[in-house]
């Protein structure tokens, strides 16, 4: 199973980049992971929030294939414990999902077209985090899930 992680914009803070790189390297032992940073929209002051979400949706949906299982990281999504998330990933792998695509949207969330295409929505927390921090939190949780699946000692319960 391949995992694709799509984000709008780039991670700029060095300490976050370092953390993301650390977990991406660790994940190579467990899964094929592709990170896609979509270019942040320019000159958005002339656009309404809805127009901005629609333009971001075009960029996101161009990267998603018809057979991909699309999961939105969304504040209204389902919340999991780390063990539940590991079970979710494991079930997706067993059900022959060839490619799981996780997406972090832009500053205003997702356009309706992205919600319509999505297979699932997942919330990392009820709290709001910066988009840059979400990237680090997600790859760490992905790594944690794989160590849980493999029965390795990273996660303590």
TrEMBL record:
Binding site for S-adenosyl-L-methionine: 73, 105, 124-129
A GO molecular-function annotation: rRNA (pseudouridine-N3-)-methyltransferase activity
GO cellular component annotations of the record: cytoplasm
E.C. designation(s): 2.1.1.177
Superkingdom, taxonomy of origin: Bacteria
Coiled coil: 38-67
Catalytic activity: pseudouridine(1915) in 23S rRNA + S-adenosyl-L-methionine = N(3)-methylpseudouridine(1915) in 23S rRNA + S-adenosyl-L-homocysteine + H(+)
The protein's enzyme class: transferase
Keyword presence, Phosphoprotein: no
Reported function: Specifically methylates the pseudouridine at position 1915 (m3Psi1915) in 23S rRNA.
Identification of the protein by name: Ribosomal RNA large subunit methyltransferase H
